[in-house]
Amino acid sequence: MTVRTPMTMATLEPDAGLRAALALDPPGVIATVRESGMKGRGGAGFPTGLKWQFAADAEAPDGRRYVVCNADEGEPGTFKDRLILSEWADLMFEGMTIAGYAIGAREGYLYLRAEYAYMEDALAATLKRRREANLLGESIMGEKGFDFDIHIHLGSGAYVCGEETALIESLEGKRGEPRVRPPFPVVSGLYGAPTTVNNVETFVWASAILAKGAEWFAGIGTEGSKGPKLFSVSGDVTEPGIFEFPLGVSIRELLEAAGGSDAKAVIIGGASGQCVPSADFDRKISYEDVSTGGAVIVIGPDRDLLDVAENVQAFFADEACGQCTPCRVGNVRILEGIRALKSGECTEKYLGDLVNLGGSMQISSKCGLGQSAPNVFLSIVKHYQAEILDRDAATVA
What we know:
Elements: E1 2-3, H1 16-22, H2 26-36, H3 48-57, E2 66-71, H4 80-87, H5 89-103, E3 107-112, H6 120-132, E4 149-154, H7 164-171, E5 195-199, H8 200-212, H9 214-218, E6 228-235, E7 241-246, H10 251-258, E8 265-268, E9 274-277, E10 295-299, H11 305-319, H12 325-342, H13 348-364, H14 368-372, H15 375-389
Parallel strand pairs: 1-7, 2-3, 2-5, 3-4, 6-10
Antiparallel strand pairs: 6-7, 8-9, 8-10
């Protein structure tokens, strides 16, 4: 796997961000993160400082507030958080500690993907070392009244628990299913208390922002998409791996770095993302244009796009939690339609019905995962309809 170097996080002085945070009061920390313009690196793109502000301002039962790190990296095509957990766990835990100080939390939880169970011992050892160094526990770094500790919670292998409210349900020992929102977790999250849930990468950049300053971060990227971003690049490329680029990088530039310039299409955002054709490779990866949590799956010139669509839709049909009808039934129906297309037995009318079904899923599914499940199929139909309909049942192998 290629790791494009130097990566910013590899150059940061250990715990410089935490020291800088403790030199400020909690509102000052939140103001710094807000001034940086950072948006969540998990894909949703909500302003991080604003989320922390909401959690800090919400009425807290018994004074309880929580910080939760979403390390349930289950999106197909995404593996950047795995690298952070392996190489820079200290920075992630530092970012969680900074968030705890900012919102007034005493406890944090790392919700670790079940498939990453092999990392649990090393992560626990990192936490133990941080406690011994007074970077966790009581009166952190001598700051009286600032008590904060972090626990590891191993997930159960459910894709839907990447959705923050389903993750919270799982943390509470319940079946991992999305909650009705509002209330949002920043108001009523874990055990009914104000909770900020952020991605692994988000906490790392929070540490960097406090260490290097809001102006440094805000000076990278575009007007609406600030800072650097990690990208997991896989598929038909000669150098798959993790790449760091400023937000606003073009798809073409990213492909050139990974050795995929001859690509037919690229799926930006993993299975829940969108398929971008080669004609649009000059589009920018940013919150204003093509948004992503970090997954970039490259589709080579010889790939059958219906094979890609079938693979993605089969994943969603298998991983749907079953709670709402649009997602539970819709994924199965679209998968059946894709297989009819592959066999040359799908009419234009049937395809139109499938597109309408996908649109209904996008607006009526209960959570963001169900709403995004038809995205890859719909974008393939949009850009490659003639290709996928040009199949004769008698000649399909």
